[in-house]
Amino acid sequence: MKVSEWLARHDGSIVTVHASRPLDEVVLQLLAEPCLRDVYVVDEEGRLVGHISHKRLAEHALAEHRPAHTRRQLMERVAGGVAGDFMNCSLASASPDEELEDVLHRQLEHEIEDMPVLDHSGVLVGAVNLTRVLRDLVRAELRADASEPD
Amino acid sequence: LTTAALGIIAYLIGGSITLAQLRRTGRMILGSTLGEALGAVLVVFLAMLLVIPEGLGELPAAFLALAFGAIAAPTAPAATIAVLHQYHARGPLSSTLLGVVALDDALGIILFASVSVVTTAASLTRGIGGAAIEVLGSIALGLGMGFVLSRLAVRLHQGSLRLPLVVAAVLLSIGAAQALDLSALLAAMTLGFSSRLWLGAAGDRLFAPVEYFEELVFLIFFTLAGAFFDPSVLSGHIHLIAVYFFARILGKVAGAAAGARLSGAPPSVSRWLGLGLVPQAGVAVGLVLALGQHPSFRPIADILVNVILGSTLLYEISGPILVRFALGRAGELGIERRRSHPS
């Protein structure tokens, strides 16, 4: 199955923000989408420029409730920042024309839960969620087992 | 070992701050940090000058006093953060305290490195020009090494190789600095700062693997310092410990008050900030160990280390109590807020 087909069959919605968005607002935006975990940072044309994991956002949002910080976390708590300051710019991505199996291999290799899918001009069009792919595969196998004669 | 361990701490301190964060931090925190750090250095220098006898070691008493002054600036952020967290403190003093403890180790290292340049014999023979070359050369070395490290980090895709890469870069910077008669501390701190500068937001990945080392490095400092611990030296120089202890508190309180007032802080901040900055621990112990390694200070290394160890013990006992006292007087303890504003 191609990635584009998988995206067409599933709700590939994602949370996107611009790099200049304050991080506190990014946290609120993500919390408004309880099913989604990560945030993608895009430029004015919608091209992917970075990624902020939910763990990184939680670290920032919950800093006040933690009894100890690293020096970096302490400075981030004091100075705050915008999405561009916290994003990871180096991330793996997939293309809509790729085979889902190849993408899965890369996801497992790089330990990525949501693999961003970019079109030929670098615009973010969706994300392949590892748990959903796994659910589809397990269900398909169960159906296949059930249909086999004893 | 001490220089390498201190180099890792300096790298982490340098990398904890970005230019964008400095711009956002605001005048009040920057002014207060400058005031409290310089205040502690100045008051400790003057007070120690009065009590250090001439003939203690090979250097003039003024240089020894300046060395103690340079160690006085850093605070131990962990104790302050723990007290703020325990009492759910919130308000202008709490947020200024957090900002100041986040910055003052960096300023402390810069002051220590600058003072070391002045007090070491090598610089004395080279004069002011030589001292300037030493400082600027260390910064240039750190910037260059930071650039190389950031370029290598971009090409490195295996996360497991980042730690050896960073440790190698820190050790190489320290080694090059020592070979060129530059400041290893300043070079390592600039390495941390510049590698994050060149890498932008992705610079975080060069620090996360090393941050786990910080506690281990402090463990090394205290173990090495423990080897210097000598009850007879400690009791024989109890007056130096007492003067250093009280002078540093006085310098922090007066300097923080002046810095905060000049930068427009409210009275609750300028009045109580200094008392929140008393804790001092690992970085100061590391700095005094590094100082004791220098040929000029080696004959009196045991006195230097025992004075700082004795005062560290006092600061770590009294520091958290004073932080709580300051927060209470400023009305920022969570318990008091709930009492005065019952829901």
Would you kindly provide a written description of the structure presented here, covering whatever features stand out?
- The complex is a heterodimer of chains A (about 150) and B (about 350).
- Chain A is an alpha+beta fold.
- Chain A is about 45% helix and about 15% strand.
- Chain A contains 7 helices and 5 strands.
- In chain A, helix 2 (about 25-30) links the parallel strand 1 and strand 2 (about 40).
- In chain A, helix 2 (about 25-30) crosses helix 3 (about 55-60).
- The longest helix of chain A has 18 residues, at about 130-145.
- Chain B is mainly α.
- Chain B is about 80% helix and about 0% strand.
- Chain B contains 17 helices and no strands.
- In chain B, helix 4 runs antiparallel to helix 6 and helix 13 (about 240-260) crosses helix 16 (about 300-330).
- Chain B is globular.
- The relative contact order of chain B is 0.19.
- The interface between A and B is medium-sized, with 24 and 34 residues.
